[in-house]
Amino acid sequence: MNNNFDVIVIGSGPGGYVCAIRSAQLGLKTACVEQEKTLGGTCLNVGCIPSKSLLHTSEIYKKAQKEFNNLGIEASNIKLNLSKMMNNKNKSVLMLTKGIEFLFKKNKITHLKGKGSISDKDTVIVTDNSGKKINYKAKNIVIGTGSIPTSLPGIKIDEKIIVSSTGALSFDKVPKELIVIGGGYIGLELSSVWSRLGAKVTVIEFLDHIVPGMDKDISTEFLKILSKQGINFKLDSKVTAVNVLQNRAVVDLTNNKSSKRERLECDKVLISVGRKPNITSDLSKLEIKLDKYKKIIVNKKFETSIKNIYAIGDVINKGPMLAHKAEDEGIAVAEIIAGQAGHVNYDVIPAVIYTSPEVAMVGKTEEQLKKENIKYKIGKFPFLANSRAKVNSETEGFVKMLVDEKTDKVLGVSIISSLAGTMIAELSLAMEFGASAEDIARTCHAHPTHTEAVKEAAMAVDKRPIHF
Known about the structure:
The chain is an alpha/beta fold. It has helices spanning 14-25, 41-46, 48-66, 82-106, 165-168, 185-196, 216-228, 282-285, 323-337, 366-371, 387-391, 420-432, 437-441, 452-460, and strands spanning 4-10, 30-34, 110-113, 115-120, 123-127, 133-143, 147-149, 162-163, 177-181, 200-204, 232-234, 237-245, 248-255, 261-266, 268-271, 275-277, 309-311, 351-353, 358-363, 376-382, 398-404, 410-417.
């Protein structure tokens, strides 16, 4: 009986561990399978959490170097101790992974250590490090195995000189020259970290703009800000080869428009061109259907093509590859299994880039609205005109609000600001409840705060901002 469960979740990342906890809360006998030594998946161990630790500490270091004196804080002999910075990052990761272990014990979740595979619709085989296999029965199985980094054709990641985000979070010294291939969220966050710590960083992006999928106004302004910070960009360029010669990397690229070829040398190359679902061939044997991107096809209840086998997070064909999306899906699946009405609103999932300033968005971009032939109005307000941002010397960026021309309903918001990641929550909540710009404009916002810029952007929809 000990090997029989109501729910077995494969993978303990943000989707998996949250699904396991919610399942247990709902009275279901739950187990969670994890092949790594620690719980938390990519996000906690080699993704969201360690990267945010380095972003935070590197930003403080840069401010201490460049800005403190101007603020009347006289600091001298500022030195970087990278090993201490890395130890601080590792402590944060350890504390949070131990926190999940505690939550598993608290909720009486069985932690199955090893690699999980599904042999049939109600059986999960767990293979431990020694190769020992144990069969477990489950009324419901949830696949939450996340994603892994992809590379470019012919380029092999060795995690020494040619690295993925995992390797770029653990350099033992600051590279003199770092080339980052890919101008998306992960590439720009890690570019910021190593640029602040002293590396000469060059970002190569295939498209003619950075952060694909974000509003073009945001992309243009963000590029200016990052260039001003010292990050170099090679846009509209295709990387044709990366080779390692005498412990140095050689990157060949070609401009898409001019066909001009270029060769760059550096100490390290970060490949940041996206991620792919972390699934194995077991699924095809089970006849679980995948789409053309090799993602698992699920229905509204997150069921795969096999009844009672569910999937969530980065492995499925719904929504962006974001940790908080996976968490919401994990909760929804647990509630559906328990007979409740679990649901995820994919139109209101915020996305954040944790650079300095931060970039955040929720809902539609202007380009999407044009493509969908939706008539809209724009309200825009710069932080240059926000009193708290001025006081804090954080005047870069703006709030851009897109609303339906007829109904005034908020359709999308994009923000560049030091606090964009926190501010976007207000807009997500507003959109979840179908708020209009007028609703936000007539909601009292505390003074002086950065969030007053949200109110002013809402007022700017009807060309009536007060401070600009």
